[in-house]
Amino acid sequence: MRPFLIAPSILSADFARLGSDVDAVLDAGADVVHFDVMDNHYVPNLTVGPMICQALRDYGITADIDVHLMVKPVDRIIPDFAKAGASIITFHPEASEHIDRSLQVIKESGCKAGLVFNPATPLHYLDHVMDKLDVILLMSVNPGFGGQSFIPSTLDKLRQVRQRIDESGFDIRLQVDGGVKVDNIADIAKAGADMFVAGSAIFNQPDYKAVIDDMRSELAS
Ligand code: DX5
Ligand code: ZN
């Protein structure tokens, strides 16, 4: 398995000083910036769009920005995020009319591409697109809000996806998002995840480095 990546979710950051808060979490040892895009249509919440992604780039953020699209429709916003500096773009397959096309639009825009599975979304959406995926993201909460509890059935789903990735031979990251904390990250890694999104667990603590260090020592255990 490749090195574990920790991706703080900006959903729990301080939006009034987003640039410096993202800078701080990267200085504290985070690997990737997880950028949650919600449209008050596909999910019952409203967050940020390409302008804010561009603002982070203009501020000087150079780390990969992992754009998690919780929007419907999917395709028309993809080029805007690519232009605004996204590195990875993931979307929920049931929000796209044409999943293969959406993946191609992401790839053609120069970004890495991934599919996101809600807790009850079946894995059959993987069937014909494994060769087009850089990331598979399993939601361990229902999307829309930070600070929810990890849904335990995600562990079994992670094991199933880990097996599919390993059998496929493709180079695909297995990401988990929702309720990831210091005290469950080791079990989540054992189930097969190698990329961990954490919002409230990191941003709700005063010392980001202490949390990220604790997560890394759990991952090494
Ligand atoms: C939920 C978002 C998550 C969220 C995770 O829809 O996709 O990225 O910010 O927050 P925590 O880590 O607090 O569960
Ligand atoms: Zn997310």
From TrEMBL:
InterPro entries: Aldolase_TIM, Ribul_P_3_epim, Ribul_P_3_epim-like, RibuloseP-bd_barrel
UniProt keywords, alphabetically: Carbohydrate metabolism, Isomerase, Metal-binding
Record EC number: 5.1.3.1
Listed cofactors: a divalent metal cation; Co(2+); Mn(2+); Zn(2+)
Active site, UniProt feature: 36 (proton acceptor), 177 (proton donor)
Catalytically driven reaction(s): D-ribulose 5-phosphate = D-xylulose 5-phosphate
Entry function: Catalyzes the reversible epimerization of D-ribulose 5-phosphate to D-xylulose 5-phosphate.
The protein's name: Ribulose-phosphate 3-epimerase
